[in-house]
Amino acid sequence: MEGVQTDADYVEPKGSQPNTESTVSREGIRRLAGPGQTNVFKALDLLPSLHTETADPFGLTANRAIRIRGKGAFHLGQTIEGLPLTGVVGGADIYDLENMDGITLYRGAVPPDKGFGFSNATGLIDQTILRPFDKPGFSVRESFGSYGFNRVYGRIDSGLLPTDTKLFASYSYTTAYKWRGAGESPANRHNLGFGFTQKLTDSAKLEIFGAYNDLESHDFRPLNYSQATRLDAFGKFDYNRRLSGIPGQDINYYDFNRREFSDFSLFANLEIKLTDTSRISVKPYYWRDDGFRLFASNNLLGSPGVTRWDIEHEQVGLVAQYDTSLQGVQVTLGYWWQDMESPPPPVGQKAYRVTASGDLAFAGWSVLSKQENHVFHSPYLVVNGQLGKANLRAGVRYLDQTVPGIRYYDTQGLPDVDYDNVFRFNPREDPTRRVASQSFQEWLPHFGVNYEITDEARAYFTYGRNYGRPDWGPQASLFNASRARFTAAGLNLDNLFRRLKPEISDNFDLGLRIGDGNWWVAPTLFYAIVNRKEVNLYDPAIQLTYYQSNAEARSYGAEIEAGITLWDDLSLFSSVSYNRYEFENDVRTAANTVIATKGKQVPDSPEVTAKVGLTYRFMGFAISPTVRYVGERFGDAENTQRVPSYTVADLYIDYEKKDLLGLGDITLGLSFLNVFDKRYIGIISQNDIQVAGNTTYYPGAPFTVAFTVGARF
Questions:
Q1: Which of 255-264, 408-417, 430-439, 567-576 has the lowest mean pLDDT?
Q2: Residue 292 in contact with residue 260, Cβ under 8 Å?
Q3: Secondary structure (3-state) at 406
Q4: CA neighbor of 95 nearest in space, from 167, 154, 171, 28
Q5: Cα–Cα separations (whole angstroms), residue 52 to 40, 577, 603
Q6: Per-residue pLDDT at 11 exceeds 70
Q7: What is the largest CA-CA distance in the chain?
Q8: Cα separation of 636 and 554, whole Å?
Q9: What digits encode the pLDDT tens for the residues 480-524?
Q10: Nearest to 150 by CA among 172, 182, 165
Q11: Taking Cα atoms as reference points, which of 638, 576, 561 lies closest to residue 608?
């Protein structure tokens, strides 16, 4: 088991094409994703212009955050083998990272043949499956550590069978207690994964992969700004361990703030080689998400209560692609289609009151609606070729998305039954909350050039347009909370939804990569123009505040990656970045209130980050310390709620013995996370579409130890 590696073992080298991405290798995943091996964000920790945090040390909780070049996860694209096998809300981390061969982070422009899904304006994370091995074998890993952490992972590979078939199947179980709050509230995760590859003919193959994931977890309680500035007193503040008998306090009982989700994912890849220079591939996929969230609400149907949000998705899609070479020019022509059941926004939510005995008593439906499906159609074209010492890439994607129509219902008097049965009681449709379906069309151009200066130096320039979905949920909530005022002003919910449009960003990168097999340096300058940004704005014509897609922002900065092998046993990787992400204008949020956002850094976005990791090897041991520095951030758009910078160090010690006693390969590992037990604020809830509101904060995870033993036979 190896640690943070040089170019070939940790961050894969950029090739001859124009690139704005970094790929973490299989060995890098094993190291940086930590003993939990579930959270893809953690595997990217050392990359430039990226800030990621989780509320627990193992990455199991849904309380997590990621920013890329200052922009948050709301518009982040996530794919498996190029397929968007996740939704907007619900389950996550469906695939075990032990089953991944690499993870690629795209910063800036996303190529037209990548980044399918609801959004990619923040960037794209794409994971590549570790295929079944040619040789039969069995792998097992056992990890345990602080806070009751335990993870068991096993994978069996069939090897290449006489039928030209290869298979793998894996299972993992992961559990851990929360490091703050009720110790009896663990996260429990069961995961099944499988893969199948079949050579059909000399020119055709079929691959099928899938996973089933079941997760139960309890949320961490956020802090307000006053509490966040006093971590000595509130560093372990969390949801209540016990019921008090006071309903207004008992909504914050830990077992009333949790989630459960079951996910199933299946996809295939059929590749047919037509000629020596052309092939077609067809990738159908399916994803189903079924679960619920419970969370405290201070104002739920007029008084404190607990919301139950049942979340179900069913998503089908297809990516079909034709690749060919025409006189040395590579041409890719493809098409992406997807059909998904909503949410967002929530289809149905129930309200409960906490009784004096500590039970949850049904108080009514707080949200009830019927929604149509969200449908995407997106053809794309990419052309790539060599012109002298320059590699040129140009392409375009046409995006056509249909936003579902929504019908909301009056919930008064409806009983406590499930969603499918509640319509038997004939709820009355509310005509002021009927939303018609909409369609949006966008052209997403892309261009890049990579120029070979010398054998050891390449320069590149890339331009591309990315997109981000509107946030429909707050629009519906705002209307429901102030329906009388909106209707008095002549506005219904459909009018408000039509003020929202997809966000568009134009991204420019200018970079250089210098180095040979022993060292490399890759500096990059970037700039992005963001249009139709959604913010909560005051409308003087009707004297109301609601979300509108008419703000502008910009992002710019510099980043550098570097790696070096000092000698055979010592290697180092580092990255440094400077990011500015700011609004172009001040924002009016009330008749007499203007938020001075112009030129201010968006919340939770550090200007400066620096990361470094090295590995020293001797006699089968690998010692890998890593250090992350995150600069000053702010919790509000006016930059008044200052959050100090912090530095966190981790240490990994591994030992590997090949072919022990002729039985197999044995690995041992120790992980020391947050070695110096640094107290700091990790997650800030405010995102880049919010300019006002109550920001919440989450403390970073404390010093944690985990031990891992693994074997492959």
A1: 567-576
A2: yes
A3: strand
A4: 171
A5: 10, 14, 14
A6: no
A7: 81
A8: 18
A9: 878 888 888 888 999 999 999 999 999 999 999 998 878 889 999
A10: 172
A11: 576
Does the pLDDT of residue 698 top 60, yes or no? yes
SS (H, E, C) 102-119: EEEEECCCCCCCCCCCCC
Strands 329-340 and 374-387: antiparallel
Q: Using CA atoms, how far apart are residues 66 and 71, in angstroms rounded to an integer? A: 8
**Separation CA 229–CA 27 (nearest Å):** 38
C-alpha closest to that of 445 among 495, 491, 506, 499 = 506
Query: For residue 202, which phi and psi values (nearest 5 degrees)?
Result: -65, -15
Q: What is the bridge-based pairing of β-strands 123-129 and 76-80?
A: parallel
Nearest to 46 by CA among 61, 31, 36: 31
Q: Which of 633, 647, 709, 677 is nearest to 35 (CA)?
A: 709
Return the sign of the alpha-carbon dihedral for residues 659, 664, 665, 669: negative
Q: Which of 28, 91, 99, 100 is nearest to 60 (CA)?
A: 91
The one-letter amino acid at 94: I
Q: What percent of the chain has pLDDT over 90?
A: 68
Please give the Cα distance from 135 to 158 (Å, whole number): 7
Place of tokens 């897609």: 549
Tens digits of residue pLDDT in 29-58: 888 888 899 999 989 988 899 999 999 999
Provide the percentage of residues in the chain whose pLDDT is more than 70.
95
* Contact of 9 with 23, CB cutoff 8 Å: no
600 phi and psi angles, rounded to 5 deg? -95, 145
Burial (CB count <10 Å: 0-12, 13-18, 19+), residue 520:
buried
Q: Residue 249, SS3? A: helix
Peptide bond into 136 cis (omega under 30): no
pTM for the predicted model, two decimal places? 0.93
- CB-based burial of residue 632 (10 Å sphere; 0-12 exposed, 13-18 middle, 19+ buried)? middle
Q: In terms of DSSP H, where are the helices of 644-692?
A: none
DSSP-based three-state secondary structure for 231: helix
Secondary element (H or E) of residue 359: none
Q: What pLDDT, in 10s, does the model give residues 623-656?
A: 999 999 999 999 988 889 999 999 999 999 999 8
CB 667 within 8 A of CB 199: no
Distance in angstroms (rounded) separating the CA atoms of residues 192 and 213:
6
Residue type for position 469: R
Q: What are phi and psi of 26, to 5 degrees?
A: -60, -40
Angle at 579 between CA 581 and CA 650, to 5 degrees: 125
Beta strands in 487-569 (DSSP E): 503-515, 519-539, 544-567
Length, in residues, of the chain: 713
How many CA atoms, within 13 angstroms, populate the side-chain half-sphere of residue 158?
15
Instruction: Give the number of other CB atoms < 10 A from CB of residue 663.
Output: 10
What is the residue type of 520? W
